[in-house]
Amino acid sequence: MVGSAKRLRLGTRGSRLALVQSELVAARLRAGGVQVEMKTIVSDGDLRAPDTPIGEGIFVTALERALVAGEIDLAVHSAKDLPLEDYPQLVIAAYPERADARDALVTRHVVRSLDDLAVGAKVGTDSPRRAGFLRALRPNLDVIPLHGNVDTRLRRLDAGQADALVLAAAGLDRLGLGGRIAARLDAASMPPAPAQGALAVQARRDDHAVLQVLGALDDPAIRIAVVAERAVLKAMGGGCRAPVGAVAVTVGGGLALLVGAVTQDGRSRHVLRLAHGIDQPDSLARAVSAAAHELKSFVPLRARAVIDTRPEVDAAERAAIEREGFRVLHVPAIAIRPPDKESELSRIRAGIGKYDWVVVTSKRAVTALFDGMPAAPKSVRWAAVGAITAKALSERGISVDCVPGSAQGDAIPEAIAKLGSLEGRRVLLARADAASKALPEKLVEMGAVVDDVVAYRTVGGPEASRRILMEAMKDPDAEVIMFASGSAVRGIVELAGAKAGVARAMRAVTIGPKTSAVARELGFEVAGEAQSQDPEGLRTALRLVFDEEVERWVESQLLQPA
């Protein structure tokens, strides 16, 4: 900052609308006794060709760079243009005002509403959201791309390049062009872009004198509404160009939020409303995440990708993950093979009646044990690790006597002991070759006579997985890697080889504490851990990773900097 907070350099773009909006903020500052020097910054958006589509953050980046470099003290933005993630050095110091959030129809001829436009009328817009909702509302219109600032688009309309435009009502009003609006479009029919109509004032996070001055401009009700709207984008996994709309208003102690999403062709459209208290950012974030989940179930937008490292992912499990809003990149990190000593397993099957207890630790162990085995004797009692294993036994006609509350094998001995002493009891363990020794050791410690038999082997993933993994790690939407065993973690590191650092940069979601321990040991950040060691638990943990991310984002954005 130059001098003191009584003299500030305000950065603005050079378009007429940007200058008008910046002057609104400058006037507020001057009224408080602050000298304001306006500095025009040329953005990449200003330099683009007139017919070039707008990219993410195109009008913002140059101003942010100037702020970080210390060339200006504050920047004024249209809040809807801001990327969801700030420069770490910058912060939104104030949301000082908001005009009409709705979209507006501007026409070349006298028309009172969108419904009055003739069939085949050309309607220009540069917004994927507006284009999608226009096609949903009036599929018989010709929606065309039409770029440029407000004045440019109006000139092109008047020159006959389109019959109508859809623009932000706020921009037209601020430019004194409200008289050109034929109709202000109902938000329930055309949900506005999140934060549309709001101004955002950005400053350096460590410039406390400036933040103190700008804090006086902040309107808490506008901040809450804008953050709630932009949280929908965050939860949807989209940016400011996503075909998603949201508008919120605070009423007393509550927040009313309308959200909607649409596909580009307009064939899938969904709008919903929710109400929430404004003093609970954590539950607000969860409500927004739930709304986003509902929107994604109706309107498929960008899907985050998850690398699933399990040996097999059947169609039902893949569909369940996709319903959570994720695209599955299946990279088998391990493969399942029969035991080296198949004859030993055959002998165990034949003599299974001599055991008091048979403990099965996974669905795969059930399959391996029962293949080739006649009906199980009634005298044997069965224990299963986890509900999935218990279900697999039940499908084989087995009545399961013991399923501990925790799906960790270590919980089995205590659970069995509650049903009777283990002293002298013969126990068969059927499990993977790489399983921990903790379970049999605990059983022996409690007096059991244990046969620990290998039901199947886990080996490294197939060679094809190496190529699949390399492609998956290049996917820009791949953000999470999911592990159902420690063997899978080790398998991914081996498959990745010199590229293991790329895999480690992704957030890991694991099946439970033991897998998490292996993941951390091998350098992964464990972002989520299943509370139940089954596929549903993994999916829930995966979803919570992003729900909690939205919660943290909401809390950070609601906190007014000082």
Total of domains? 5
Spans with pLDDT under 50 lasting ≥5 residues? none
Cα distance spanning the termini: 16 Å
* Strand elements, count: 23
- Text of the CATH class of the largest domain: Alpha Beta
Count of helical regions: 20
Q: Write down the overall geometry.
A: elongated
And the CATH topology of the largest domain? D-Maltodextrin-Binding Protein, domain 2
Major sheet size, sense and barrel closure: 5 strands, mixed
Tell me the CATH architecture of the largest domain. 3-Layer(aba) Sandwich
| Cα gyration radius (Å) | 30 Å
How are the strands of the biggest sheet laid out side by side? 2-1-3-10-4
Mean pLDDT, all residues: 90
Compile the SSE list and pairings.
Layout (H helix, E strand, L loop, with lengths): L6 E6 L3 H16 L3 E6 L3 H4 L13 H8 L5 E5 L11 E5 L8 E5 L14 E4 L2 H10 L4 E4 L4 H9 L5 E5 H6 L6 E4 L14 E6 L3 H8 L4 H17 L7 E8 L2 E9 L6 E9 L3 H18 L5 E5 L6 H9 L2 E5 L3 E4 L4 H9 L6 E4 L2 H8 L10 E4 L2 H9 L16 H6 L8 E7 L5 H8 L3 E12 L2 H12 L3 E6 L2 H11 L3 H5 L2 E4 L2 H9 L3 E5 L5 H24 L4
Parallel strand pairs: 1-2, 1-3, 6-7, 6-8, 14-15, 14-21, 17-18, 17-19, 19-20, 21-22, 22-23
Antiparallel strand pairs: 3-10, 4-10, 5-8, 5-9, 11-12, 12-13, 16-20
